[in-house]
Amino acid sequence: MKILLATKNQGKLKEIREIFQGSSFEIIGRDELPTETTQNMEIEETAQSFEGNALIKAIVLGEISGFVTLADDSGLCVEALNGAPGVNSARYSGGGDKENNLKLLGEMAGQSEEKRDAHYQCVVAIYDPTMKKAQTVFGRWDGRIALEMRGDKSFGYAPVFLPREFGYKVTTAELDNEEIIKINHRGQAFRQARKILEEKYS
Predict the structure, then answer these.
(1) Which residues pair with residue 78 across a beta bridge?
(2) Which end of the chain offers a freer environment for a tag, N or C, measured as fewer CB atoms within 10 Å?
(3) Which residue ranges make up each domain of the chain?
(4) In CATH, what class is 2-201?
(5) Radius of gyration of the chain (CA)
(6) How does DSSP assign 171-197, residue by residue?
(7) Do residues 119 and 143 lie in contact, with contact meaning Cβ atoms separated by under 8 Å?
């Protein structure tokens, strides 16, 4: 059974395929859809929550493609910044990853180690277009914001995020992906999604 993952990001597609390895599902990305229109279509994420944006993507692409669709939305929430950058994580500075990280470090300047708590949140929406039903699952990864950027093994806010599991000593960008996916927010949520899909369709 083919399951559509609402992404064109090959890195994410590879990551999720690893989570589904050994299952009866074939995970396909948007680039593998038959219509060029669907592949290139921009979906506006207008909700003010991770759950809302994940549902928008899953329902829109599920309805168009006819496939059971998985879509995720995630971001970094910093307690001292009242949850920012949150749903605006990708657009926080108006620039790219480096600019986002520099802005975050600037906002956190002068904050003590104890006040640098943060967490990643991920919501995965599962939508079945034949049943017209959607449900969501959640993942959360706790850590702190580093004093400076370190590492180059990942993307996004990885160079400034210190996971709790590693004693706040290394950033996510200093860890191998195989270590990260076992514990991070996205891995948590997609493993729950796999379990739901296996119960429904296997």
Answers:
(1) 118
(2) C
(3) 2-201
(4) alpha beta
(5) 17
(6) -GGGS-HHHHHTTSHHHHHHHHHHHHH
(7) yes
Residue whose entry in the numeric block shows the structure tokens 């609402």? 6
The burial class, CB within 10 Å (0-12 / 13-18 / 19+), for 197 is: buried
Tokens 């597609």 found at:
13
The span from the CA of 93 to the CA of 103, in Å, is 6
State phi, psi for 166 to the nearest 5 degrees: -105, 25
CA-CA distance, 168 to 171, in Å (whole number)? 8
Structure tokens at 79: 């307690």
The pTM (predicted TM-score) of the whole model is 0.90
Q: Copy the structure tokens of residue 11.
A: 């890195």
Active site residues: 73
Helix segments in the chain, DSSP class H: 10-19, 36-40, 50-65, 97-107, 177-181, 185-201
Tens-digit pLDDT string for the chain (202 aa): 999 999 888 878 988 999 999 999 999 999 888 765 565 677 888 889 999 999 999 999 999 899 999 999 999 999 999 999 999 998 999 999 999 999 999 999 999 988 999 999 999 999 999 999 999 999 999 999 999 999 998 889 999 999 999 999 999 999 988 888 889 999 999 999 999 999 998 7
Residue type, 68: V
